[in-house]
Amino acid sequence: MSTTDPKLKIARSKNLAPGLTLSSLLRNESGIDTVVALFKAHLDRHAASNSPINLDDFFTYTTFDIVGESIFSKQFGFLREARDIGGSIRNSFYQNAYVAVVGFYPWFHGLIANPWMTASGLLPFGHIVDTAMGAVKDREANPDARFDVLSHWFRALAEHPDRMSLFDVHSAATNAVAAGSDTVATGLQSFVYHMIRHPHAWAKAREEIDAAGLPDAEVIAYGDAQNLTYLQACIKEALRVFSPAPMTLPRVAPAGGLSIGDRVIPEGTIVSVCPWVIHASTEFWGPDAKEFKPERWLSGDAARLEKYYMPFGLGYASCPGQNLARIQLSKILATLVRDYDFEQVDRNADWKYHTFFVVAPYGWPVRVTKRSRA
Ligand code: HEM
After folding, report:
1. ∠ at Cα 22 (16, 25), nearest 5°?
2. Which is the closest atom of ligand 1 to the Cα of 1?
3. What mean pLDDT comes out for the span 313-330?
4. Residue 266 per-residue DSSP state
5. Residue 319 annotated as part of some ligand binding site
6. C-alpha to C-alpha distance for 36 and 79, rounded to whole angstroms
7. How far apart are CA 204 and CA 202, in angstroms?
8. What is the Å distance from ligand 1's center to 321 Cα?
9. Does an H or E element contain 28, and which?
10. Whose CA is nearest to atom 20 of ligand 1?
11. What is the C-alpha end-to-end distance of the chain, expressed in Å?
12. Residue extents of the structural domains in the chain
C-alpha cells in the first residue's frame, strides 16, 4: 500500500492479482453462499420477532466472514456469534482514522511503528495484523482448505521466489482483512438506505428479479445477479452517491512535475483524487448530481458517465479487491430485494456516519419483513 513508485507497484500487484480475478473468486462461490445464508437466518429471526436490526453491524459481520471464506477458507465467526469478536469491528474505527493519516504521510508510520509497537497492540494496525496472521496460521493447518486466494498467493511465492517474499503474502493478507470488509458493508448500507427512500426503485428491482425466472436458490448466483440490469444500475448509483472510500491512495507527481490543464503540480507533490468531489460534480453528472437516480445508468449518456465513475479508484493503483466487492454486492443485494422488505424505525431520521479512510454509516435501525415467495 505504501509503494508509490508506479513500476514497483505494478510488479507487486501482478504477483497478487491471480487470486483476486473473478474466475478464481467464483470457484469458491458456495463458501460465500454459506455466509449469506447465515446472515439471512439473522434477518429471519428479526422478522419473526419484529425487533429492529442494525444493518451496519450485520453487514460488517457478513463482509468480514466472506473475506475469511474467500481468502482463508474459514469464516471469522462474526455471524455465528452475532457479535464483534475480539473488538475487531470497533478496532476498524481507529484503524480507519489511522490509515486516513498514514496513507498520505507514511513517514508518520515509519516514525512510530516498530515490532515492539505492533506486538504491544497499541497501534490499531496491530490488531488487524494479529487477526490476519492468526487466519494465515489456521489456514496452513487446515487440511480441508479450498483453492482459496491464499493458495494462489502461496503458489505465486513458490513459483517466483525471486519476485515476491513471504512478507508480501502476509502484507496482502493483512491489507485484505483491513480493506475488504467495512468498504463493502458501507456499499451494502448505501444501497438499502437509498433504495428504501426510493420505494419505486426497490419495487422495480424486485419486478426485474421476479420476471427473470431465476433458479430457486437461497442465495442468488453471481452470474444471475449480473444480468439484472436495473439492479446493477441501483448498485452503481449507491456507490456513486455514497462512495465507501472517500479518498484514493496517494500518488506522487513525477520528475519534472505534472501539468493538468493550466495547473502545474511540482515534482514530488503528493496528490489524490477524491471520489466524492468527482461524483458530486454537476459539470460531469448534471444538475441532479447529488440525487440517487439509477436511471442515469440506463440512459444514452451512460458510456460518457462511466469515465467519471471511480468508487474503486482508477489506474494502476485502483482497488485490487473490486471483483470480490462486486460479487458480494450483486449476490447479497439481489437476494435481499427478492426476499425482504425494510423499513427504517424512524423514517424521518437521517443516518449518521464517521468519515476516515472509509465512510462508515451507523444509527439507522430498521425493521425487516420476510416476503413470502410462492
Ligand atoms: C465496495 C467496496 C470497495 C470499495 C469502494 C473500495 C475502494 C478502494 C479504493 C478507492 C482504493 C484506493 C484506490 C486508488 O488509490 O486508486 C482501494 C484500495 C484497496 N482495496 Fe478496496 N474497495 C472495496 C473493497 C475491497 C475489498 C473487498 C478488498 C479485499 C480484497 C479490498 C482491498 C483493497 C486493498 C488491499 C487496497 C490497497 C491497494 C494498494 O495497495 O494499492 N477492497 N479500495
Report:
1. 75
2. 40
3. 96
4. P
5. yes
6. 9
7. 5
8. 6
9. none
10. 319
11. 49
12. 6-370
The CATH number of 6-370 is 1.10.630.10
Average pLDDT on 265-276 reads: 93
- R_g of the chain, CA atoms, integer Å: 21
Separate counts of helices (H) and strands (E) for the chain: 19, 8
pLDDT, tens only, 184-204 = 999 999 999 999 999 999 999
How many whole angstroms from 133 Cα to the centroid of ligand 1? 20
Concatenate the DSSP letters of all residues of 199-221 into one string.
HHHHHHHHHHHHHTT----SS--
Cβ neighbors of 265 (< 8 A, separation 6 or more) are: 253, 257, 258, 259, 271
Residue 331 pLDDT level (bands cut at 50, 70, 90) = very high
CA pair distance 111, 108, nearest whole angstrom: 5
Those residues with Cβ within 8 angstroms of residue 137's Cβ, 6 or more apart along the chain or in another chain: none
Does residue 312 line the site of ligand 1, with CB under 6 A? yes
244 lines ligand 1 (CB under 6 A): yes
Supply 201's cell numbers. 426503485
User: Is the Cβ atom of 132 under 6 angstroms away from ligand 1?
Assistant: no
State pLDDT tens for residues 274-284.
999 999 999 99
